Amino acid sequence: MLTELQKRAAQAIVNIFETSDPQGDYGKVTVMKGDPGHLTYGRSQTTLTSGNLYLLIKAYCEAPDADFAATLEHYLLRLLRKDTTLDNDATLRAVLTKAGDDPIMQDVQDQFFDRVYWEPSVIAAGNLGIQTALGIAVVYDSIVHGSWRAMRDKTLTDYGTVKQLGEQNWIAQYIGVRRQWLATNKMALLRKTVYRMDALFELAQVGNWNLVLPFYVRGVYVDHGALMPILPRTSAQGDERVLFLQTPNLRGEDVKEVQEALLSKGYQIKVDSVFGEKTESVVKQFQGRAKLKMDGIVGPATRAALGLL
C-alpha cells in the first residue's frame, strides 16, 4: 500500500506530463489541433469527447458555494452533448481558467480525478501484481493518457505475466511496448508524447521504484515542497503545523496532541509524538468516519473534528 507521499509523487509525474506542474494546473484549458479529445481541462486534462469534462463540471456546479457555478451551469447541456464547437468558445475557456483558482474547483478535481483515474489505476495494477510506486505510476499514466488495456494485453502476449517476469522487468517491457506504439502512431500528437515513456524509463533505470524524493521528471525538480503546498495558517489558532507523513517523520507536542485526541476517541494508537505510518493510518480511519477527505493530513478540518480548534 502506497503512502500518501508516494501517491502524490506518482500523481506529480503525470501532472508534469499533462501541465508541466507537479501539483497540476487546475485552470489549464487546452485545445490542440488533431486531438480527438477536443477541449481538455484541469489538473489531469480531462476531455470533452470522453464525457468526463461534463461530469467534472457537473460535480463542480453541484458543490455548495462554487464561485462560477451559475455561469458554468449554462454549458452543461452542451458539454453533455459533447458539442465540439465549445473548443472555440472564448467565454467558456476564460471561466474555466478562472474557476481553476477556486478552492472548491480544486477539491472537486482532486476527488474526481482520484475516482476516475487514480483508484482504477491502483486496482488495475494490483490485479496484475504490480505493487511499487513507480509501477503504479506507469499504470496511472497510461490510464490518464489512454490505451492502457491494449498495451497491457500486448505486453502480456509478447513477454508474459508479471509473475513470470517479475514486476520490474515486466514494467520495463511494458514501457518499451508503449513507447514503440506511441512512436509509430498514425496520430502526430501521440508521436510527440514518447517523452512520457522516456521519463518513466529513466526512473526505472536509476532504481527509484519507491519514488523516493527528490527526483527529476523532464527537468522538473520534484521534492517534498513541490508535492505539499504551504497551506495557510491562522494566528488565532496558534499557527498550528499541518501534519502529514513525511521523511523524516514530524515530531512534537502537536503530534502528541493529535495522537491523544485519537486515543480519547477509542482509536488504538501509540502516543509517541511521532507522525509515522501508523498515525497516518489511524488519522485516515478517523477521517473516514468523520466524513472528511481521507488523505491522512491533519489540517484545520481534521483538527476541528478532533475538537482541537
UniProtKB/TrEMBL annotation:
GO biological process: carbohydrate metabolic process
Domain Peptidoglycan binding-like stretches: 251-306
An annotated Gene Ontology molecular function: chitosanase activity
Pfam families for the chain: Glyco_hydro_46, PG_binding_1
Listed GO CC annotations: extracellular region
TM region positions: none
Protein name: Peptidoglycan-binding domain 1 protein
Species classification: Bacteria, Candidatus Moduliflexota, Candidatus Moduliflexia, Candidatus Moduliflexales, Candidatus Moduliflexaceae
